[in-house]
Amino acid sequence: MRTRDFLRMITGSIRSHPLRSGLTALGIAVGIAAVVLLTSIGIGINVFIVSQFNQFGTNIIAVNPGKSQTAGGAPPMFSSASTKPLTMDDVEALARIPKVTSVVPMHMGNAEVEAGRRRRRTIILGVNPDMPDVFLVGAAVGRFLPPDDQRAPRAMAVLGRKVQEDLFPSGGALGSRVRISGEKYRVVGILESKGDTIGFDLDDAIYIPAARSLEMFNQEGLVEIDLTYDEGTDVDGLVLAIKRRLTARHGQEDYTITTQEQMVEVMMRILGTLTTAVAALGGISLLVGAVGIFTIMTIAVRERTSEIGLLRALGAPHGQVLALFLGEAAALAALGGAAGLVIGVGGGQLLHFLIPTLPVYTPLAVVFIAMFVATTIGLIAGVLPARRAARLDPVEALRTE
Prior knowledge:
The chain has helices at 3-16, 18-54, 88-95, 131-135, 161-167, 210-216, 235-250, 260-303, 305-313, 318-354, 364-390, 394-398; strands spanning 60-65, 100-115, 118-127, 139-142, 156-159, 177-180, 183-191, 196-197, 200-201, 205-209, 224-229, 255-259. It folds into two domains: 3-52 and 265-398, no CATH class; 84-253, no CATH class. By secondary structure, it is α+β, with helices and mostly antiparallel strands.
């Protein structure tokens, strides 16, 4: 049988039952669309998370109060009574460790801010002048918090872009005075726009010295201490040095140290599990599509028994009859896969258009894998019906006419 005739018989069989063929392909299309869409969202979130972490550089170590039992996890919500808080003295002690280039204390609160007749509540972040070096962010106007006595710093503040636009819509923020929780602060700079970062809007915050933030909210302990280190530093050795320094000061290991590599690894592991789970849900749809192809091909063999008998009587070998039905199953699956790709990729782009903050990314490899999986499923589902068709006795098959 010539290749042209072979293809004509496959396409003719599909066209002769358009509704049945469409429903069969639809089962595969739904599965492929679900897998592609969910996988694209999962990969997009992975890429987004990694980019969010990497925009702060790749050499950050975070120290949190409280001992966490799992590496890379967040500190426990409730610590034991013997847990000592992280203090400004700890910051100074960590800054003296060799290879450490910058240390930033971090304290967070929420307070009302006033500028003239305008007021609003916003996040107050207590930091120090090293923040631009650690988080790769600086002042777009003016400067960041200048070097000062970190135990008794002056009342200076740096405004996030959104806070500046709300409190000073006409400009003139630099050098002005704002009241934060009733205390006057002089604005020395406007932070360059960074937007949302891992669920936190750096533009919607005010930055003041950490010691003043602790005093403002009447607290002793910092939320976090972030460190950076020289390129090429032995990170494991540095972590060990941090542990020794803090344990000597606290008398116990009542803190959690997390490297940026661990942060990314944990997030990737969680998102990888979610991506696998959602892809498995799409796989269930593919299984349903495979069952549909198997059922339709079985019905097709019964309906075309006389045609198979005629082909065999004319000398068509077993292999050609087998290939004919396998080709039809693969063609139906490929059509469904192509439709599923269009639906999945198009649906992802539509979601991204409607929800710009939802990252969607479809690598080319996913496209090829989806088509390969769809075609393979069609071939596997069509094997048994095709073998049954190839094994029909020509004489018995012709008698069904």
